Inverse folding.
């Protein structure tokens, strides 16, 4: 990044930010897609005095309603809500981009802008839904938690992490990493205090709202068509006997081998995610947020790559953290997850998505999922290798400074 104090250091990042956002602005008024009606109806029902999960079904954690409510308050139609909520997500998007620009300030040359540019490319390719699904919010909160934790701001990191969990649950896989890192750095008390303050409203709502009903909704889901398991079954559909079906929450493959594969997929997913969570707690060395992102991305990739459920916006969860790995020593760990995010645009939206992808597009989908799996394997290998290296006394002795202070 240009040196501070120079004219270029002042205007270039701002210009880059503005240029990256301009192509996305028309999507604020594009045709409403996806879950926007669900968000609008849920927010209006809550604002009118009805009880979430009891008086009307709601599939997300309580803090998601807090994200929908501001736009619903100023909207009387779905079209107005789309624009208002889109502006809300645009603000979150800007915050993510600014955070990635700031994260690269200490890097030299093109590496300073690599995290920002990688995220900007993925976001542009996902423009179809970027400002119409609320995944930007938990993705931004998870990114904030990692960045704050890497700077020693454990209390604020915990608050961001709990807010993310209260919005869309998935950042919960980062909790053990945060606890382990805070314990090693002597900031465990601050972390717990920040988490307690952020979780207090959530705990209060849990006393009056039947939150477990949302769990029942998700436990009934099958093999979503974009998951690794479903994509392989659909690629070999003549053999597997599955059908591409419109389920209540998504498109799934059903029939044939699908029920048997689902019984295998769920325990593999749970076990794989648990292993990823454990590996994320291992120490990682290095300055800046890239080191912590290397560990944080591991359980997220396990959760996404191995799961029976996969929606296109999940690549946003992984891409925000993978972007931080774009530095000279860690970029190979980011290559596969970011390439998978790029390929996602090929398969969604795509011709035949409502009735069944063609064999060629399904092959791309399988490749995308294998890239996520490759990224997971590389991160796990890095975690195990790093742990062996740091536990090797001979290696520590070789790397210790000698009497002259040289290595």
């Amino acid at each position: 990044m240009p040196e501070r104090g120079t004219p270029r250091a002042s205007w270039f990042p701002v210009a880059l930010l503005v240029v990256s956002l301009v192509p996305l602005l028309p999507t604020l008024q594009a045709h409403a897609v996806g879950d926007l009606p669900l968000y609008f109806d849920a927010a209006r029902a809550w604002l009118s005095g009805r009880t979430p999960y009891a008086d009307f079904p709601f599939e997300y954690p309580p803090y998601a309603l807090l994200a929908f409510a501001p736009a619903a308050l100023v909207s009387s139609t779905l079209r107005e809500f789309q624009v208002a909520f889109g502006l809300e997500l645009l603000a979150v998007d800007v915050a993510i981009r600014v955070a990635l620009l700031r994260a690269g300030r200490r890097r030299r040359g093109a590496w300073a802008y690599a995290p920002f540019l990688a995220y900007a490319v993925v976001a542009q390719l996902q423009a179809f839904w970027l400002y119409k699904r609320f995944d930007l919010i938990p993705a931004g909160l998870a990114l904030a938690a990692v960045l704050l934790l890497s700077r020693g701001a454990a209390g604020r990191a915990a608050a961001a992490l709990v807010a993310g969990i209260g919005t869309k649950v998935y950042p919960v896989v980062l909790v053990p990493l945060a606890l382990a890192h805070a314990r090693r750095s002597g900031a465990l008390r601050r972390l717990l205090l920040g988490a307690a303050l952020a979780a207090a409203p959530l705990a209060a709502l849990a006393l009056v709202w039947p939150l477990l009903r949302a769990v029942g909704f998700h436990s009934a889901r099958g093999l979503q068509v974009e998951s690794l398991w479903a994509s392989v079954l659909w690629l070999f559909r003549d053999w597997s006997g599955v059908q591409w079906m419109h389920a209540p929450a998504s498109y799934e493959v059903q029939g044939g081998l699908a029920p048997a594969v689902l019984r295998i997929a769920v325990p593999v997913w749970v076990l794989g995610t648990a292993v990823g969570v454990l590996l994320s707690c291992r120490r990682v060395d290095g300055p800046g947020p890239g080191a912590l992102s290397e560990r944080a991305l591991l359980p997220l990739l396990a959760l996404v790559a191995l799961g029976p459920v996969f929606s296109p916006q999940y690549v946003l969860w992984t891409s925000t953290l993978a972007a931080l790995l774009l530095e000279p020593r860690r970029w190979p760990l980011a290559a596969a997850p970011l390439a998978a995010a790029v390929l996602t645009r090929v398969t969604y939206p795509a011709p035949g998505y409502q009735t069944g992808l063609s064999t060629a597009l399904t092959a791309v989908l399988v490749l995308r999922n294998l890239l996520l799996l490759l990224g997971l394997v590389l991160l796990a290998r890095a975690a195990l290798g790093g742990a062996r290296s740091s536990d090797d006394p001979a290696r520590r002795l070789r790397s210790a400074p000698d009497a002259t202070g040289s290595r």
Summary: The chain has three domains: 1-133, 135-211, 218-389. The first strand starts at residue 223 and ends at 224. The longest helix spans residues 359-391.
